Amino acid sequence: MKTLLVSPLTLALAIGLLAGLPLIALSSPTPTTRLAQFVPPPVPPQGAPGQRQGAASRGQCPSTTKPLTALVPLFSGNNPGRSNIPSQSNPILQSNPESITSLVWGSTASARPGFWFYVPYAVQPQPTLEFVLQDDQGNTIYKTELAGTLPGVVGVQLPETAAPLSPDKPYHWYFLVYCNPNEPVFVDGWIQRSNLSSALQRQLATAPPRQKLALYRANGFWYDTLTIAAELRRTNPTDPSLLTAWTDLLRSIGLEALNAEPVVPCCTAKP
User: Fold this and answer.
1) Torsion-angle region of residue 20: left (phi > 0), alpha (psi -120 to 50) or beta?
2) Which of 35, 134, 150, 199 is the most buried (most CB within 10 A)?
């Protein structure tokens, strides 16, 4: 069997293309800045029923052209494993049976990852935002109320005071907007932490942010990919290569309609 040797230059060019870095052309064609398609990991056997978009009804939040949206991959269709999810422990899921028709799920390598949402409402200081994280038995392991943001893409980062996610264990999160104190608009989905390979750990240890973005994306770590992309987009809003990368990332999960929405700071934890 012949061994295929890849030169350092070839490898550097490949990584640069994935990360959306500008490359020096070796010939007349102009290199692309588009990222490779996101490679999603397989859906866990127990399934991940969730609701990626929040549907506001009369008396709840104001009507908007774009709904409250979780920036997470969506796997449509019936979920044969949904009966294994202890939905009786999740009253929000019980009251919204339509949410079990979709799988909202992604993987992370982080013990305390970030979660990202598009919020179409002004929150100054109302309505109240709430983030809840539960284990697969419906036990709440982290919960916080937030306030103070403008319409746009916002991130909720698990703090150092929160318990770290255990590897290979699914967790159920909820993000709720209380325009009406008794009837929130919400989205919910699932996350699972996976261990990094030793080779990927070595690559990430010395990689700059744009290269980390490409590495996480190529290995299916959605939440880490999105967190880096969102932070780069927030701090460099006029960078055309980052806008291209951001648009490609949202397009890969069918949310390209949100590509022009600003990434805004969020939020202030309520005491």
Assistant:
1) left
2) 35
Q: What is the pTM of this model?
A: 0.75
**Amino acid code (one letter) for 26:** L
How far is CA 271 from each of CA 124, 126, 140, 186, 265, rounded to the nearest angstrom?
16, 15, 18, 22, 19
158-216 confidence digits (pLDDT tens): 999 999 999 999 999 999 988 877 788 899 999 999 999 999 999 999 999 999 999 99
- Decide: 172 and 47 in contact? Cβ < 8 Å: no
Nearest-Å Rg of the Cα atoms of the chain is: 19
Q: Which residues contact 61 (CB under 8 A, 6 or more apart)?
A: 68, 121, 127, 177, 179, 180, 185
For residue 104, the Cα-to-chain-centroid distance in whole angstroms is: 10
Task: Take residue 101 and report the two structure tokens written for it.
Answer: 């028709």
